[in-house]
């Protein structure tokens, strides 16, 4: 699959079944994704893979925190078992002259590269955040340390409908592009030099 096709046909997949990549295949794909732009090559991220019952724990931690009743707890438990693999993306900011926002951008780039590589292998994925990303209980469960921050999980598996070339027509985003020469006519006049300087 060429890159443009991958970009045009990837979708966030809400319904994911087995199989998902095993640990070895995930590591292989991540190795490729790790070549995404990364100022300073700081690799400010790490991943925690959750499978089977481990995923349910995410929902249970949120249920504990929100005081969910039995039915809501069960719903949360099921919610976080939707996909065969949940790959938690942990942002690991490095103490470095490269500002933190650039490191966060690098972590986002690696996630997108990974999603495209998964898609090219006919896996589906969706980046999920919500309560999960801000829950202190989930952070403790995942063993986050110091300044680390959970950026969410990539749910990964095989899309129910297959990845059959659901090519999309991209929106017209030309209005977001300005040619510099168009800007210049609106620039304020430079103040003429006065006085005897
Ligand atoms: C940082 C981030 C967080 C997201 N969190 C969620 C989420 O919590 N739940 C969800 O259904 N989708 C989530 N998404 C997926 C977006 O909703 C999705 O990418 C968007 O609707 C466009 O759909 P597409 O990926 O199929 O093109 C997230 C995407 C990003 C980049």
TrEMBL record:
InterPro entries: NAD(P)H_nitroreductase, Nitroreductase, Nitroreductase-like, YdjA-like. One of its GO terms (molecular function) is oxidoreductase activity. FMN binds at residues 10-12, 39, 127-129. Residues 8-157 form the Nitroreductase domain. Binds 1 FMN per subunit. Keywords: Flavoprotein, FMN, NAD, NADP, Oxidoreductase. Transmembrane segments: none annotated. Its cofactor is FMN. It is an enzyme of class 1 (oxidoreductase). This is Putative NAD(P)H nitroreductase. It comes from Streptomyces griseoviridis.
């Amino acid at each position: 699959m060429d890159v443009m096709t991958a970009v045009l046909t990837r979708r966030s997949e809400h319904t994911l079944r087995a199989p998902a990549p095993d640990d070895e295949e995930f590591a292989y794909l991540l190795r490729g994704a790790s070549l995404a732009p990364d100022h300073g090559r700081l690799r400010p991220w790490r991943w925690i893979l959750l499978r089977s019952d481990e995923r349910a724990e995410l929902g249970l931690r949120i249920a504990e925190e929100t005081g969910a009743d039995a039915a809501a707890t069960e719903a949360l438990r099921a919610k976080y078992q939707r996909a065969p693999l949940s790959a938690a993306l942990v942002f690991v900011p490095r103490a470095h002259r490269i500002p933190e926002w650039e490191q966060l951008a690098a972590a986002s780039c690696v996630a997108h590269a990974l999603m495209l590589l998964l898609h090219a292998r006919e896996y589906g994925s969706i980046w999920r955040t919500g309560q999960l990303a801000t829950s202190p209980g989930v952070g403790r469960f995942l063993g986050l340390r110091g300044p680390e921050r959970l950026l969410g999980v990539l749910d990964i598996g095989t899309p129910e409908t297959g990845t059959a070339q659901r090519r999309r027509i991209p929106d017209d985003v030309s209005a977001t592009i300005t040619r510099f020469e168009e800007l210049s006519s609106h620039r304020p006049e430079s103040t003429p030099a006065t006085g005897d300087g």
